[in-house]
Amino acid sequence: MDTMSRIAALVSDCAASLWPDAQGLPAAEELRGLLAVPPDPALGDYAFPCFRLAKPLRMAPPKIAEALCAAWSRPDVASVQPVNGYMNFFLNRANFAAEIMAELREKGDRFGASDIGNGKTICLDYSSINIAKRFHIGHLSTTMLGHSLKRIYDFLGYTTVGINHLGDWGTQFGKMICAYKKWGSREEVEKGGVDALTALYVRFHEEAEKDPSLEDEGREWFKKIEDGDEEALAIFSWFKDLTLKDAARVYDMLGVTFDSYAGESFYNDKMEPVIQELRDKGLLTQSEGAWVVDLSEDKMPPCLILKSDGATIYATRDLAAAVYRQNTYHFDKCLYVVAYQQDLHFRQVFRVLEKMGYPWAKNCVHVAFGMVSFEGEALSTRRGNVVHLDDLLTQAVEKALAIIEEKSPGLENKQEVARQVGIGAVVYTDLSNNRIKDIDFSWDRALNFDGETGPYVQYTHARCCSVLRKAQDQLQADPDWSALTDDEAQALLRLISRFPDVIREAADKYEPSMITRAVTDIAQAFNKYYYEHRILDGEPGQAAARVALTDAVRSVIKTGLYLIGIEAPERM
Asked: How far, in Å, CA of 69 to CA of 65, rounded?
């Protein structure tokens, strides 16, 4: 049992013994959720607000706090003090250190892992690249948020299904084929790959501004794809293969994998049953020739299902995809990691699923995120103003290598470390703030070894590894946990003790940045500890305790970095 759970259980027992006839006293689990960390360390390590007990006990919170503190009899856990309706806890530092270190020793790199997800499945729809377009920096957030959440849920015992819902349907592919037929050649496209396709896409829009009839030709080619025209399908399939081959390089660089690449075209034969079901349930109404689901009572625009020409749209395919995923995977949650601009779309789709009578619709969640710009510049594929992700990652590795050459010229395996640091810097930048915030990527910020950055956290991990390599002799002695009662060690231990809660909260709130923040705080606390205390000096038992704490920091940082999709170099 962790420290907060133990305190909550003891408070619960104490309250029950003081007021045995009281009705409605909260259980220990609820009390644990009420425990907080005081803003001022002078007020204690933890604080329990007694206001929750005021109603069932019909007492003022300060009186409750005083009674609980007077009855407290566990100095081995903490001493207590009543302050303005709060019960403040001052941990027994040596015992706290011993308990946390025992748990870390038992669980090792699985510290923070859980089985709370056993028997439950979570589908995650993320990345969702578009066919015939190169992976650009705008895809970074959906890819890394989804990848991180998948790792977090795996760590908590869930069965996860990572889905890359490919953007492989729509009139843009007719336009691409039109452009290829007019201005491209197979040799040029094979040689240029997705760059050549993007150039054709940009040229199509430039030419269409001068000759609007090209838009009709593009639509005609897409109609051929829909109708199964042999030539159109062959060209489209070739474009798709080129794109996935290009994307695979980027996914390999990021360490990202998927369980399914079922994209929009996969649901072509699965939409009609959903449309028919909407008709049968009286949910489809006609509006200006199109078929929609009226959502006016939900204060939303109607959800378009079929255009006036009978064509389906994103909502039609997303409805079919949701039904397919529930029937196939029986998910407990289905997360859609998509930019916040699509908020209305997903609210409409989820509401339509509810109106269709699916109780699992409430388990569909839009995990929204902000937009990414680069050095202050917005991005647009149509205008040709993009920062391709593989170029960004390659530059990050090159810049990291230059910094390593300057700071650590004798480092072994510099290329590999530069890869870990450069890519880690990009991922950290993306996952360091609340996901809904817009991100402006900056080289100076991302690759700073001294600020709150990926390289800083990775360097702290490498520093821990360096200490441990020098500490082989100290590993043999029995640790004296009283050596970890100083303020710096206790600050570290408190952060580490909260790490499992941070992982669960990150999962509950779909917010990997909480883990990024936690490992950064631990890195900063360790560096303060490192400069204030000589880890390998003193009595063998004291040194052994400090070395064990260093190993704990190493382990937790490595786990945290893994959960957000970053590697942890052992030397830097």
From this structure: 6
State the Cα–Cα distance between residues 532 and 34, nearest whole angstrom.
33
Rounded Cα distance, 104 and 54, in Å: 37
- Catalytic, out of 139, 147, 224, 558: 139
Residue 136: active-site member: yes
Q: Which residues contact 271 (CB under 8 A, 6 or more apart)?
A: 312, 316, 317, 319, 320
Q: Work out the burial of residue 160: count CB atoms within 10 Å of its CB; fewer than 13 is exposed, 13-18 middle, 19 or more buried.
A: buried
H helical segments located in 331-370: 343-355
- 133 as an active site residue: the answer is yes
Per-residue model confidence (pLDDT) at position 441:
75
- What is the residue-averaged pLDDT of the chain? 92
> Please, are residues 503 and 563 in contact by the beta-carbon 8 Å criterion?
yes
* Strand 290-293 with 284-287, pairing: antiparallel
To which residue do tokens 């590999």 refer?
416
CA distance 194 to 246: 7
Burial class (CB in 10 A: 0-12, 13-18, 19+), 191: exposed
Q: How far apart are CA 192 and CA 184, in angstroms?
A: 11
Cα pseudo-dihedral 320, 323, 324, 329, rounded to 10? 150
For residue 165, the tally of other CB atoms under 10 A from its CB is 24
> Active-site residue among 133, 147, 224, 355?
133
Residue pair 460/424 in contact (Cβ under 8 Å)? The answer is: no
How crowded is the C-beta side of 419, counted as CA atoms within 13 Å?
A: 8
pLDDT class for 385, splitting at 50, 70, 90? low
Helical (H) or strand (E) element with 390: helix 389-407
For 62-95, the pLDDT digits (tens) are 999 999 999 999 999 999 999 999 999 999 999 9
The pLDDT tens digits of the residues spanning 517-551 come to 999 999 999 999 999 999 998 899 999 999 999 99
Three-state secondary-structure class, residue 307 = coil
Euclidean distance between CA atoms 387 and 381, whole angstroms: 9
Q: Where are the alpha helices (DSSP H) in 108-139?
A: none
Which residue type is seen at 200?
Answer: L
Q: What is the rounded distance in angstroms from the CA atom of residue 103 to the CA atom of residue 111?
A: 8
Residue 254, both tokens: 């990021």
Amino acid at site 93: R
Sequence letter at residue 327:
N
Q: Which domains does the chain possess?
A: 3-91 (3.30.1360.70), 395-563 (1.10.730.10)
Q: Which phi and psi angles does 129 have, rounded to 5°?
A: -70, 160
Tokens of 459: 């360097």
**Which of 63, 107, 136, 270 is an active site residue?**
136
Residue 539 CB coordination number (10 Å): 11
Residue 233 CB contacts under 8 Å (≥ 6 apart), including other chains: 225
Instruction: Identify whether the C-beta of residue 425 lies closer than 8 Å to the C-beta of residue 446.
Output: yes
